[in-house]
Amino acid sequence: MSDEVNWSGDYYNEGMNAKNSIFDKLGEECGVFGVWGHPDAAQLCYYGLHALQHRGQESAGICTNNQGEFHYSRGMGLVKEVFNESNLHDLTGHSAIGHVRYSTAGESKLANAQPLIFKYREGDLAIATNGNIVNALEIKSRLEKSGSIFQTSSDTEVLAHLISRSKHDDIVEAVKDALSQLVGAFAFLILTNDKLIAASDPNGIRPFTIAQLGSAYLFASETCAFDVVGATYLRDVLPGELLVLDRKNVMCKDSFAKPSRHAICAMEYVYFARPDSDINGINIHSARKRMGKKLAKESFISADIVTGVPDSSISAAIGFAEQTGIPYEIGLIKNRYIGRTFIQPSQELREQGVKMKLSAVRKVVEGKRVVLIDDSIVRGTTSLRIVNLLREAGATEVHVRISSPPFINPCFYGIDTPERKDLIAATLTLEEMCRKINADSLYFLSKTGMLESINFMPQGVNRGCCTACFDNSYPTKK
C-alpha cells in the first residue's frame, strides 16, 4: 500500500512534488514574467503570472522598480491567493519581474519564493528564474568555503553570489561573468535599479519569449502570458543570449556564451506548455495533434471511442481520432476545484486518490472498446488507476497509447522527476508495463515520431530538442 498523503499543509500544494504526489505526473517547472517601461508593470505581471500558473503552484512573487526603489511581495500558494488589490497597489513602478514556483531545487518555503531580492555593492538586485543549475551545489560549496553565507536553499541564489563576487563593477559584465560559470537549464530575469536583464542558457533548454506592448518590452516563459495582456510576440530569446534594457528603453543584444547544441525541452511540447502557447514558432496544440496522428499511424487498434486524459493529452487524442476515424469522446472529466484538503485519508482512499481529480463518464464508455491517450507514464500508478476507472465504468477494453517515448531517465534541468529506479519504463518491459497498468494493449510514440511531430529543426542533434529523459542524451555535463 502507498504511504502517500493528500495535501494537508497551510497552503495549496505545500511540499507537493513528483516524489510524494498522489497523482503520478511529472512536476511542473517554474514560470517567469517581466515588464520594462509600462506604468502598470505590477498589474501586467499579475495577469502574466496567472496565465503561467500551470508552471508552478507553490509560491508567487512580484518585484517592481519605481525610479530606482524596489517594492516586492511574495507568498506561498496560487497567484490569486498571494496578491490582492492592496498589495498590488503598493507595487509601483514602470518595471517588474514576477515568478511562479514549483520547487525542483530547494525546499518549499517562503524563503525560497522568488523573485529573490539582494543588496549588492552597486545597488539592489532581484532575480527570477525558470530551470535548474546543475552545478549549483559545487559552486555553493566553493563560495561557502571562501566566506559566502547563503540565506536560501534555492539554486538561484548562487547567481547573486557570483555577481557580487565578480571583479567587474559594471552589472552587465558581472552578470555575464556569473552566467558563464553556470551549467544547466535556465531562463533568468534580473532586475537592477536601472536595468532589466534577460538571459537564456547556451542550449536554450527552457522556453523564453519576448513581446512588446506599446513601447514596453515583456518577457515570459510562454507566449500564452502575452495574449492575456494584449502584447505582441516578437521572438524567442536565443541560446546564450543576454538582453539588456536601460532607462532609455533601448534593448541591447549581447551574449555571455556561444550557442551550444540547441536542445529545447521536448516535454514542453508533449506536456508542460499550455496548448495556446507557441515555442520557437511552433504551436503546442498543433504539435500535440501531430503526435496523436503519428501515434495512430504507428499503433492503430480497432476501437469504439478515443478519449484523452485531461488536459494535456486532449490535443493528441483529437489527432489520434482524426487519423483513425474513431470518434473522439469525453470519457474522463477533470475536477478543477480540488483545492486543498486537511483530511488524512485511509490507506484505501489513498489508493483511490485519483478519483478526487478524475471521473469516468459511464454513459460514454460503458460497453465500449476505449483507446486511452496520455502524454507520459512516470511510475505507472496513476495509469493503473485511470484504466481501472474506465473498466469500473463499463469499458470492455482499454488500449493505452502514450504520445511520447518511454520515460527512462531523470531530468536535471528543472523538471521534478523520480529516480531512475522508480520510473516504470526503466525497469519493466513493454509487456510487463501493460500488465502492470491493467491495459489490453500499450504503445509509446517513437522518438522519431515525436521529433517529426514537433518539427523544430530538420538538422541538428535530436532535431534541436532535449530528449535526455528518453535516450540518456544529456546536452550538458551532468
UniProtKB/TrEMBL annotation:
One of its GO terms (molecular function) is amidophosphoribosyltransferase activity. SUPFAM superfamilies: N-terminal nucleophile aminohydrolases (Ntn hydrolases), PRTase-like. One of its GO terms (biological process) is 'de novo' IMP biosynthetic process. The keyword Nucleus does not apply. It catalyses: 5-phospho-beta-D-ribosylamine + L-glutamate + diphosphate = 5-phospho-alpha-D-ribose 1-diphosphate + L-glutamine + H2O. Keywords: 4Fe-4S, Glutamine amidotransferase, Glycosyltransferase, Iron, Iron-sulfur, Magnesium, Metal-binding, Purine biosynthesis, Transferase. PROSITE patterns: GATASE_TYPE_2. This is Amidophosphoribosyltransferase. NCBIfam families: purF. Pathway: Purine metabolism; IMP biosynthesis via de novo pathway; N(1)-(5-phospho-D-ribosyl)glycinamide from 5-phospho-alpha-D-ribose 1-diphosphate: step 1/2.
